[in-house]
Amino acid sequence: MLNPREERELREVFGVFDRNGDGLISAEDLLMVMHSLGMKLNESDANDMIREGDVDHDGMISFHGKSYARVIEM
């Protein structure tokens, strides 16, 4: 379980990846942020990363639940 400071920090990072503010991170969101950071990531890799963390199989990562924590561990 996260303490309040850790949760706040994770929410801030999540907000960077959640480009449109819908509370979800899509493969497109991930790809755009990674490219803006100068990281080489192709669409297939972004989809794979989302798929690995997508616990409810909707093609997105949400902050709640275990899905975001799984992506952070990657």
Automatic annotation (TrEMBL):
InterPro entries in the cross-refs: Centrin_CML-like (IPR050145), EF-hand-dom_pair (IPR011992), EF_Hand_1_Ca_BS (IPR018247), EF_hand_dom (IPR002048)
GO molecular function: calcium ion binding
Stored Pfam families: EF-hand_7
Keyword tags: Calcium, Repeat
Keyword S-adenosyl-L-methionine attached: no
EF-hand domain boundaries: 5-40
Tree of life domain: Eukaryota
Full protein name: EF-hand domain-containing protein
